[in-house]
## 1
Amino acid sequence: MIIDIGYYAMLAAFLLTGYAIFAGLSGIYKNSANLIDSAYRAHLATFIMVLLSYFSLSIGFLTSDFTVKFIANNSSTDLPIFYKLTAVWGGLEGSLLLWQLLLSGFTAALVLFYKKQHKEIMPFVVTVLSLTSLFLLFMLIGWSSPFAKMLPAPGEGRGLNPLLQNPGMVFHPPSLYLGYVGFNIPFAFAMGSLWAGRQSDEWILATRRWTLVSWFFLTLGMILGGHWAYVELGWGGYWAWDPVENASLMPWLTGTAYLHSVIVQEKRNRLKLWNVLLLITTFTLSILGTFITRSGVLNSVHAFSKSNIGPAFLVFIALILVLSFLLLYLRPGYFKDPEGKASIMSKESSFLLNNVLFLGMAFTVLYGTVFPLLAEGLFDKKLSIQAPFFNSIILPLGVLLIFMMGITQVLGWKTTTNKMLQKNLAIPSLTTLALVVGSMVALAWDWQLSFLAGMAFFAGWVVLSELIKSIRAQRLHNPKPTGFWVKVWQDKRKRGGLIIHLGVVVMVLGFCGNFFGYEDAFTLYPNQSKQIRDYQLTYKGSSERQVLNARHLAVDLELKKKGVYKAELRPAKAFYPTRPEPMTEVAIYSTLISDFYVSLASYNDDGSATLNVYINPMVNFVWASLAFYIIGTFYALAYRPTQLKKQEKA
């Protein structure tokens, strides 16, 4: 019964969205406030229907209703309640439902809080969002319905994929979806503003926070995904240039480029066309990422099984591009920059170069991800592009991008004097040069590592210097003693950006640890030890225990470093009742400097254990960077542009 309610609620949402589009377009072209208000109310009702549909599916999972095919394929009676709730988005159909829930919720929020502030463009904006909703709802009631019945119902479900039974995977997909769906908002505002014929920058100010939040959640999703892969897959790494990993990286790269580029439009009224193109690209890549993840056309440890939705997504992507570029063609005069060129040594030129580098990286990832698919589809040739290809291009571009991150901080708008450059960059540049040359000669470091570490050092020095200058400048302008929190809360926009950039530096330092990593595979018998660098690993025996719905067969290891006891490690094979093959459960001894990482390759009949051991230096810097992103984003969100305050008062 509850499942039927969910299906009919979804059908009602589809009809309401269709009506909202019709009423919105009619209201726009008839200039009818009543029709537009009717469309707004339809959007609110759509959100309620989608929420009811999602709630119904969740109840179906909690009650193990195996008459529903999606539930039978992704749940079982032994599954813990926590994972039953998160299994709703653990498969193709449920993930699309979560996507639609977020999109309809965001649209409802816009209708409730923005319709009075942006009366002229809101009908156009909401209509653009409605078109995406209509497509997703069409998929959900047709090709990928999470409510499709399975008769006769099996007595037991297949269970949730054990790889998804991990806290990291619980938070990773919603974070990515919040990022993907969030970038719908600035895209819709840009397209809606063009459609309405508005030449003002109103939409940029209106979507500033939406863009920041979307970027943050996309960043959070990728970091959580990397950590999930690190602790769950047992291969000792966190990024493998997997197609689905790449699917999230591509819109992140173009979205990050937009975040920087839009500052130029806000400050200098330049790069207007760039910004719209970046938004179109980011939105399109987010849909392409959905296609890659959910169509099953590419092999990936993350991807869902093969489905027939691929062609529909490709058609939708084509429509997005055609309609977006049609709007650009119809509004050619809207993208003229002010007369007069900025100097090469200016923030404007620096941001433009950043855009080129970000797009170059995004194109490299796109090419490496999609080309094997095109080769197989067009020429029936199976190709595989591996990590060396990506690293050989992304690493040099990344090093240059990090260098530019430092340079940009000290450049002025329009032009920068040589005196200013020498004052701000002479010492960090000479020190960095000495570090790079010294590490290559004295320490025999790989040139790639030397340049990557050197650029991180350079950017970190400059960014930290600018942060200190911001604090000192505040003291000069306001010498009177004020409270600690008042001092901390000043200059929010600049400090927020600087803190985020410090997070990038910390993350890059974590990447540098990959050059010092160690890995080995060996077999130990009970009471046998193995010396691994400064560590001694001793095999004490084996044990079995029940962990939630899985039986763990673990080997008990004692870890010492330089003769000092450090930890008991229990890597294991996990056996799930609904899955015939065992899963790998890793054990990690973690410090700030490095991780000692062990996975159980096999437990052998003679009582021996074959182990894979990795020493991963500085890997925790990658996870620690998230703290900088959280603090920096919080700072940046607290900033309110003066123009926006005036609009709100008006």
## 2
Amino acid sequence: MSLSLVQSRALLGLEAAAVTVEVHLANGLPSFTLVGLADVEVKEARERVRSAIQNAGLEFPHNKRITVNLAPADLPKDSGRFDLPIALGILAASGQIDTARLSGYEFAGELSLSGELRPVRGALAMSLALHASGVQTRLVLPSDSAEEAALVGEAEVYRAGHLLDVVRQFVAQAADAPAPEPSPGWSRVSARPQALVVPYPDLADVKGQLGPKRALEIAAAGGHSLLLSGPPGSGKSMLAQRFAGLLPPMTSSEALESAAVASLGGRFSLARWAQRPTCSPHHTASAVALVGGGSPPRPGEVSLAHHGVLFLDEMPEFPRAALEALREPLESGTITISRAARRCEFPARFQLIGAMNPCPCGYLGSMQRACRCTPDQIARYQGKLSGPLLDRIDLHVEVPAVPASDLLQAPAGEASASIRERCMAARERAITRQGKPNQALHGQEIDTHVLLDAAAAKFLHVAAARLGWSARSTHRALKVARTIADLAGAHSTQLAHVAEAMQYRRANGPAGLP
């Protein structure tokens, strides 16, 4: 009768819960039982592990009763990450590797039938969670997953390409025997240096549209959300797709957080390291696809856009429930997924860029084509965006159609690089003054840091009363005005800054609409 213990991790959102893989070999009718609240993918590990051990030339204990317990028993486990620790536990319990030498290591990896190790989802999230909780351990992962996990600088990560590469490091040896020689498939992975130059589409490609470009600059400088409204083909999508190039470079912590969420969603790529994400879900996306969910809970588009941009094209065409689900993360920067079995919290600090037509046909107010929509159709279409959601969008901007003569003859616009320099300087002023971007100001912080002039305060008070603004609308206009003042290098928020900020919230509906 033999028992072995191998350490691994299960992912619960961005948390990495410890899992002990207990393997017990006993006499009796040959069987292979796996317990511990394992999902279907984990239960299928029995056949993968059996074939991998045999095809690697190792001995599988066919004549034993094998019991594998994934402890704790009340923690749900999913994916094939437990294949490698289960295989090592069987080999250790049968005496083919030294159980004592497994101490201090944690293993995760999916096995092919030949014994090759395949990458697992969430390796970077696991490494980052261990670092955040102060856990000192050595991670053994498949090659691609090890590259991810090693991005956390303090992590000690080893890559392995095959089950045999791992077994050779932990074979049973005499006390005076020399250490095993390094295998070509086994090595420690050092942290990859950060990318310095990140390519983004250039805003110079967009000709004309000086007003919307100004709005993009303000949004990038202060972290504000933006709604673009205009006829088809006016350039709304081009503007939104170039917005990420105006944002400051990601810090190391921001890059790790963004990459960890992408790793959970299976979207991480080293080629896009330190690049701000731009997520553009189709307008048929459900509320679960946008905010996350499922069993186990997975991050949605709002979390995959963390520290980046969430672009919703054809915004009124999204399901009403999906749009209304954006309210809380727009305010809090996090999203909490609650299910009967568990509760997970994902970060969702994104900048929302929405695009819409002014009416179903798209040509309301256009000088080029006549609108053929009835007033009821227009009201129904615009009513798809609720007042509470529009109230949370800081900038409402009209994007008019560009005449063909301007499109063909106008010179290229200002490059993203020069606009980004101004945005970075304005954001740096805000960080120096208050420790956060202007959009993140709340409550008393607005009164303290906006530094509103008396004339500007009087003007805003009268205008807000006449326009029927809510308290949220007034506060958001103040934060936009503070960003405009930072772009101008002004110490206080003046009347001109407030007047410009009010142009982006002229009405309760989208810009330019009744």
## 3
Amino acid sequence: MKQLIECVPNFSEGRDMSIIKQITDQIETVEGVKLLDVDPGKATNRTVVTFVGTPDEVVEAAILAMKKAAELIDMSKHKGEHPRFGATDVCPLVPVANITMEETVKYARKLAERAGKEIGYPIYCYENAAFEEKRKNLANVRAGEYEGLPEKLKNPDWKPDFGSSEFNPRTGATAVSARNFLIAYNINLNTTSTRRANAIAFDVREAGRVKREGDKLSGKIAKDKDGNPVRIPGLLKKVKAIGWYIEEYGVAQISMNLTDITVTTIQEAFDAVEKSANKRGIRVTGSELVGLIPLNAMLDAGKYFLKKQQRSLGISETEIIKIAVKSLGLDELKPFNPQERIIEYILNKSSEKKLIDHNLSEFADKTAAEIPAPGGGSISAYMGTLGISLATMVANLSAHKRGWDERWEEFSAYAEKGEELKSKLLKLVDEDTASFNKIMEAVRMPKASETEKKARYTAMQKATKNAIEVPYNIMKLSLESMKIIKTMAQIGLQASVSDAGVGALAVKAAVSGAFLNVKINFSGVDDKNYVRDMLHKAQEIEKETIKQEKEILEIVNEKIG
């Protein structure tokens, strides 16, 4: 799975959009990165830019943007309401998908080191990327702001982590961090009362509310021995919240910032607000997501509500997201389009239609056309997909069989694994065609000189091995599917046992078909040890698949009678 990082640099320019455009243009030159949002503020004279991509590419785009900002923004002339100390004031990296915070910290420090070397001005690391405790808090790092930098840089305690300790009046300094994903999330109430909405917000937010003497709302604020207000903490960690009235919708909302969704998720925030509201005779009617959200956060929410209903989790990604949207009421105020709100979906948007995006008739027509791809490999992958889909269907039906309620988790686990295999095999439908296209690209490479011939040969060998490994992966995943098919034939819903049998037949065809594609490409590979090894492994997979198919069909035919 592709690793994704979000980068949210804040540039100290919010009035001259030609400058901002030149900076964001640099970001868009990097392949593997997508610019998601540009949010300028005139009063703050600051622009927040959001882009996402693979880690190394995000670091590269950030460096290019910081260089352009250093070239175009003159901090000695900057005025604005927001705290700031540099042309690129802050540059946080945020883990989005398939990457840990520890890994993100390494990329943040890599970014900071490169900026220090290549741009040459002071760079500080804060939050999770900080090298010492006092630098974790951005307020400490930026204390004194731009105007206080000359003195700050003279203090050995505030020597920059990277870059020069000399004050650069044009660029100032930059703070680089790694932090968790922040979600702006509003929950709708069936009331117009801001006061009651605030009471709910105080119940749930981490800061809670101030304690009053006698525990009465009208009592004096209770103080500790140092004279500081005593607070009653709220229910949710890493959550900021306030109640407000939205005239546009005619309802009050709980406006929340979930500053670390690994600590408090959107579904946990929703349930906590619902519980607090109910105690006050108020009902939650829905919610509103502001900005974008990672795919995993939506899938986790959907699965959370499915578990509460004791429903199988082994359904498609689309259906899980639909459950999340309906359960959270994200479409109450306006339509919620996952393709426009989920980061990974935005990144994967393409003008070119994939094979798996075609309907059945289109896919058949494309296969039958006078073009060599899609061919047997893609069809084998799709047969494997259909085979495991049938087993997943049996698992889901079994999870909801009347009288088997106590077994829903058992069958849900099989359905989840089946869904995972289905998704992987579906991807291979397009990957097989892509592997053929890579061979054709290599064939068309120039071969006039010895250097060109060598490059063409290397590309041909690499592309041909890829054309072997894609159908080989189809074989491996298809054989793995047989375990679930066999289990469903043994313990699944009796009325669907024939579906398990058809699934076994489809998977056997997928393995044998993919094996033909493996073998036909062997002649193009000069590495005979590679060929020998792949042939042996593929033969073992086909042998085991044939064995599994026979055993499954015996079980199925015996049950059918």
